[in-house]
Write a structure and sequence with these properties.
Elements (H helix, E strand, L loop, with lengths): L3 E3 L21 E3 L14 H4 L5 E3 L12 H4 L7 E3 L8 H5 L9 E3 L11 H11 L5 E2 L2 E2 L3 H15 L14 H11 L15 E8 L4 E8 L4 H12 L9 E3 L8 E3 L10 H11 L7
Helix pairs in contact: 4-5, 5-6
Amino acid sequence: SLKQLNVGHNNITSLPCITTSNLPDITELNLIENKINCFSDVVGLAELFPNLATLVLSDNPLNSFGDDQQAVTKFEKLAKLHVNNITIKSWDEVSKLRWFPALHDVRMVHWDLFGDMKEEERRKMLGALLPNSPLINGAPIPDREAAERWYLRRCNKEGNTTATSEEPFYLDLIRYQELHEKWGELPEVADITLECRETMTLTLRVPDKGVEVQREFSIYDTYLSIIAQLEKEIKEVISLNTIQYVKQGNPDNHPYPVIIATPQQMLYQIINHAHAVESGGCDSL
């Protein structure tokens, strides 16, 4: 029996509501690149194809999912909806996708609505607004709970009360209330940039040579490479395990011996100590 029906590229503008008979074997319907403007023009499909699981409406001038929520909920088995490259311009319409009771995967790329939004922000918005859809554009939302908290904080911060695409941020009041009930009042998150330091200025002494050197070293330097750099600078041979580290800001310049069990051990033992000192941590090596 026929399972898939392709009626794309036929200039279809609407499909009549047929209730006298239906086609229960059809599970996938492809209406790509027709002239359907509103989902209300095809709500009769729920009666005609009661077991419809996949509906393709991509490349139609679709600008609304209509206002009849009850009619949309009749698509009880619709799990996949393809609406790529349509003309939706309001986040209100995105929220209406929650009306589909079994929607599992929504394909929705090339929407003007998304404009210049970064991929991460777009996925967070969709993850927060569409809690019942595990897959968006074929991929899961990495951390839906984080997306929900992000959206709740943005709503609190922006304070918008209307839902148009011209607003700087979209507030879905119903969804906001659901998330507020779920997560409560969330504290603001500090905007912190963490940078990895790959170099650090260290003061090293070679007591038996009467030399003290202050210079930048890479965190990837080995103990042997440190010795090689110092030997090149002071033009003398340095014995192993004779280098001392001078703590920055120490008024008496008290040196700490750099005790390395094997010459191959990494300089990060010194650098980690120096970083801890600068951060107010330990003060002895």
